[in-house]
Amino acid sequence: MEEPDTEQAGLIDALAQTAFILTSALNRIAADNDLSITQLRLLGTLRGRSPQMKQLAGHLGLEKSTLSGLIDRAQRRGFVQRRPSESDKRVIEVALTADGESTARRIEADVRVAVEPIIRQLDPADRDALRVLLERMLGPAPS
Question: What is the 3-state secondary structure (H, E, C) of the chain?
Answer without folding.
Answer: CCCCCHHHHHHHHHHHHHHHHHHHHHHHHHHHCCCCHHHHHHHHHHCCCCCEHHHHHHHHCCCHHHHHHHHHHHHHCCCEEEEECCCCCCCEEEEECHHHHHHHHHHHHHHHHHHHHHHCCCCHHHHHHHHHHHHHHHCCCCC
